[in-house]
Design a protein that fits this description.
Chain B: GO terms for molecular function: ABC-type sulfate transporter activity. Chain B: InterPro entries: CysT_permease, MetI-like, MetI-like_sf, Sulph_transpt2. The complex is a heterotrimer of chains A (about 350), B (about 280) and C (about 280). Chain A has about 350 residues and is an alpha+beta fold. Chain A has two domains: about 230 residues, P-loop containing nucleotide triphosphate hydrolases (Rossmann fold, 3-Layer(aba) Sandwich); about 100 residues, Nucleic acid-binding proteins (OB fold (Dihydrolipoamide Acetyltransferase, E2P), Beta Barrel). Chain A is about 25% helix and about 35% strand. In chain A, helix 2 crosses helix 3 and helix 3 packs across helix 4. The radius of gyration of chain A is 25 Å and the shape is elongated. Chain C has two domains: about 30 residues; about 230 residues, MetI-like (MetI-like fold, Orthogonal Bundle). In chain C, about 75% of the residues lie in helices and about 0% in strands. Chain C is built from 13 helices and no strands. In chain C, helix 3 runs parallel beside helix 8 and helix 5 crosses helix 7. Classes of the chains: A alpha+beta (about 350), B mainly alpha (about 280), C mainly alpha (about 280).
């Protein structure tokens, strides 16, 4: 199914949670809403689910206007951050809940429900735990039960709110790839909210980067990393060094003419240059783009050498990754040249 | 009672435990065992003669029946009040929240004369009900009304924290799974608060069975009709029939301990299910 | 982040209906009785109200009530602190049994609470003949009233402090001990400041019950005017004599005490986050 969000705005008192958000999903894609807390990503997800309602704008499912339709009628699988399992029901009762509340004529037979539960327990790899209570499960198991419960109603769309937020690091990693597999098997269009860029980069087809209720960029993991649309995206995703620059006539000058780099965007006035640690190499002598730095610390990490350095005459420290063979000891002077960078 | 092997660096265990046991024994346990020993010395026939006499049975029926009815009424309205206090904002909410404890704080005799003045035939409420043929004061209905007053805070205060603790996300989950509001209440909210509701019910019931002060004014105190069990104890005492009083007291004591046990089992059940 | 939950809120109409029913119920069962007390007290004007309060028997009842509360509340406060210290700061077998025993008076009918003392000290009680011989009166006298009051108010302070002190653990006290404070110093300077609001809360509820207790006191008092009549008993006597204004006048004092108790209790709950225990948990 494809979802279209058109000009959605949502305000809580004086706080604007969503500011004219427009977004369109592709059928079967796995979309991540990524942003810091307060960026509006959860509100957007809840608006798509019909758990919250926008003040302005429209939500369309396959072209059909769903803006005012409450969650009960949307047939959406929603996985909550803290699982929201029914504590007084067994795992099997939790999973079958969505089927047993249907009107009598739409309700599957008892046998059909039992078969469905067994199938889903198999899918989440917990076939033996149907009779347990949620309190008797680990966090990762609860999360999987919550997913099975959402899938039981054969939803048109799967929404997940920080699905791994409450889990510890190792379990998160395992569940991530497992969730991606489930997504591929079911073919459901899925949207998940996360504040963890690594998570989004690893499993999403496309990432929607949000901040302060607006969308900063929509793109594939490669796009948001390689071609960040805004300074925020650039600094939010991946490691980035940020240095102030002065822009004029197709050039960006760092400091008092420390280094001059070509500025394809032809901007003017003060700006900010973003340089990723590994987008740097040792400069040839006399290169106008070479940045003089003093090494503060250096340690080998795998095949590269991570160097923390001070740009001469500037307060900002610079983190750079050079080949491990490069020698750098504290106090040593180096000249480095940004190979790839973006100026905002 | 022996302390476990793990030593504590804190002093005063012997002193405070000694004080506790001494005082508990002197004030509570010795007097209560006097009652039990006296009852045991009576023999079954003597015990049953008063303790299970028709008049006593009628009194138990009234005390237990009215307490049960009042607890049931409070289960419904107490839940409703806990619900609006937890879920809604309205003017006077904090005042109402504080006022729910009034029956805990108001002396029972004061409640008793106020209720009978309100609900007697020429009282503010009673005069409205009298034309409809509903007599409240001096009938079992009056006893029930007094016990509704006494029992309300037990239900509200048992349910309120559990309801507040119940995450909204659970209800939202039910909604996304297609459950209507009614289904969500019946199948998700009610089961989650049921243990707390039952606990409050049992506490209100137990309190109602033993209640005296707020009832005697409104009850009418007619033997076989509107005479409650605690009043019967006093009647026996006034006739210097200590054995009769003891027998009735024992029956009530046993029943209230049964309730206490029930409440404790409920708590254990709640702890085991992982729902608080 | 998610600021609202429209899905879990009833329609405005249903909400208003529920609030309306709640208000009606509370008005009938809580507010009208309270208003009735004050309306009854002032039914014949302020002069009659004041006359009823300065009546010698009424004054004697007020004095006796203050005396009884003045004895039983401190006694139970000291016991409550000691019991909470032993139970909350140490581990021993039978702890939950001990807590249940301390709670016992709450599950005993007030009338039965009075009865047990009559069985012990009454004319036909175990110690009755011995007491008569030595000219000691307990039943139908002030000592009996104090005993019955101590019994019914026994658990209030302890049950408020036990969870509070258990939650605070013993880290503070152990730290004080490691700094070479004596046991008493630790208690006065570390424990007591930590529990003072909880203690006040328990004392408050204990006092309200001590002054308002009716059933238990009624059994042991003998209703001797001017001598063994507490305020609640005096209310009963006046009411039964059809002196309604007098009964409500004394009752209004007790109701005011209840309102002050509720007010202070609420402030303690809001300001100091003391959980509401009441008698419900």
């Amino acid at each position: 199914m494809s979802i279209v969000v058109e000009n959605i705005s949502r305000r809580f008192g004086g706080f604007t949670a969503l500011d004219r958000i427009t977004l369109e999903t592709r059928p079967g894609e796995f979309l991540a809403l990524l942003g810091p807390s307060g960026s509006g990503k959860t509100t957007l997800l809840r608006t798509i689910a019909g758990l919250d309602f926008a003040d302005e704008g429209h939500v369309l499912f396959d072209g059909q206007d769903m803006t005012g339709t409450p969650a009960v009628e949307r047939r959406i699988g929603f996985v909550f951050q803290n699982y929201a399992l029914f504590r007084h029901m067994t795992v099997a009762q939790n999973i079958s809940f969505g089927l047993t509340v249907r009107k009598r004529r739409d309700r599957p037979t008892k046998a059909a429900i039992a078969a469905k539960v067994a199938e889903l327990l198999e899918l989440i790899q917990l076939p033996e735990l149907g009779d347990r209570y949620p309190a008797q499960l680990s966090g990762g198991q609860r999360q999987r039960v919550a997913l099975a419960r959402a899938l039981a109603i054969e939803p048109r769309l799967l929404l997940l709110d920080e699905p791994f937020g409450a889990l510890d690091a190792q379990v998160r990693k395992d569940l991530r790839s497992w969730l991606r597999r489930i997504h591929d098997e079911t073919g459901l269009t899925s949207i998940f909210v996360t504040h963890d860029q690594e998570e989004a980069l690893e499993i999403a087809d496309r990432i929607v980067v949000m901040r302060g209720g607006v969308i900063e960029q929509i793109g594939t993991p490669a796009e948001v990393q390689g071609a960040p649309a805004t300074a925020f995206v650039s600094s939010f995703i991946g490691e980035t060094n940020r240095l102030p620059v002065t822009r004029r006539d197709g050039a960006a000058v760092i400091g008092d003419a420390l280094a001059t780099l070509p500025d394809e965007a032809q901007g003017r006035g003060p700006g900010e240059i973003h340089i990723r640690p590994h987008d740097v190499e040792l400069a040839e002598p006399g290169d106008a783009a070479a940045l003089p730095v003093t090494v503060l610390a250096s340690r080998p990490i795998g095949r590269s050498r991570r160097i923390t350095a001070q740009v001469v005459g500037m307060a900002e420290p610079l983190t750079i990754d050079l080949p491990v063979a490069v020698e750098a000891s504290p106090g040593q002077q180096l000249a480095v040249r940004p190979v790839r960078y973006r100026i905002f | 009672m022996r302390r476990s092997k793990q030593r504590s660096a804190l002093p005063g265990f012997g002193l405070t435990m000694g004080m506790t046991l001494f005082w508990l024994g002197l004030v509570v346990l010795v007097p209560l065992s006097a009652l039990v020993i006296r009852a045991a010395g009576m023999g079954w026939a003597g015990f049953a003669e008063v303790g299970l006499s028709p008049r006593a049975l009628a009194a138990y029926r009234l005390s237990f029946g009215a307490a049960l009815a009042a607890a049931a009424i409070n289960a419904v309205f107490g839940l409703l009040i806990a619900w609006i206090l937890v879920r809604y904002e309205f003017p006077g909410k904090k005042l109402i929240d504080a006022a729910v404890d009034l029956p805990f704080a108001l002396p029972t005799a004061v409640a008793g004369i106020a209720l009978v003045s309100l609900y007697s035939d020429n009282g503010w409420v009673g005069s409205l009900l009298a034309p409809l043929g509903i007599k409240v004061a001096y009938t079992p209905l009056g006893v029930t009304i007094a016990l509704v007053f006494i029992g309300l805070p037990f239900i509200v205060r048992s349910v309120q924290p559990v309801l507040a603790d119940l995450g909204r996300d659970v209800e939202e989950a039910a909604a996304t799974l297609g459950a209507t509001r009614g289904q969500t209440f019946r199948r998700v909210i009610l089961p989650a608060i049921l243990p707390a509701l039952l606990t409050g019910f049992a506490l209100a019931f137990a309190r109602g069975v033993g209640e005296y002060g707020s009832i005697i004014f409104i009850a009418g105190n007619m033997p076989f009709k509107s005479e409650i069990a605690p009043l019967l104890i006093i009647t026996q005492l006034e006739q210097f029939d200590y054995d009769g009083a003891t027998a009735i007291a024992c029956v009530m004591l046993v029943l209230s301990f049964a309730m206490l046990l029930f409440v404790n089992l409920l708590q254990a059940w709640r702890a085991r299910r992982g729902t608080r | 982040m998610s600021g609202s939950h429209p899905t879990t809120v009833e329609s405005p109409w249903a909400r208003r209906a529920l609030i309306g029913v709640g208000f009606l119920f509370l008005a009938l069962f809580l507010f009208l009785p309270l208003v009735m007390v004050f309306a009854g007290a002032l039914a014949k004007g302020w002069q009659v109200f004041f006359d009823a309060l300065v009546d010698p028997d009424a004054l004697a009842a007020i004095r006796l009530t203050l005396l009884v509360a003045g004895i039983s509340v401190p006694v139970n406060a000291v016991f409550g602190v000691a019991a909470a210290w032993a139970i909350a700061k140490f581990d021993f077998r039978g702890k939950s049994l001990l807590i249940s025993l301390i709670d016992l008076p709450f599950s005993v009918s007030p009338v039965v609470s009075g009865l047990v003392f009559v069985l012990l000290f009454g004319a036909q009680g175990w110690l009755g003949p011995w007491l008569t011989e030595h000219g000691v009166r307990i039943i139908f006298a002030v000592p009996g009233i104090v005993l019955a009051t101590v019994f019914v108010t026994f658990p209030f302070v302890a049950r408020e402090l036990i969870p509070l002190m258990a939650e605070q653990g013993r880290d503070d006290e152990e730290a004080a001990r490691s700094l070479a404070a004596t046991g008493w110093q630790t208690f006065w300077h570390v424990t007591l400041p930590n529990i003072r609001w909880g203690l006040l809360y328990g004392v408050l509820l204990c006092n309200a019950r001590a002054m308002g207790e009716f059933g238990a006191v009624s059994v042991v008092s003998g209703h001797i005017r001017g001598l063994t009549n507490t305020m609640p008993l005096h209310v009963e006597i006046l009411y039964n004599e059809y002196d309604f204004v007098g009964a409500f006048a004394v009752a209004s004092l007790l109701a005011s005490l209840a309102l002050v108790t509720l007010g202070v209790k609420t402030v303690l709950e809001w300001r100091f986050g003391i959980h509401r225990a009441g008698a419900a948990h």
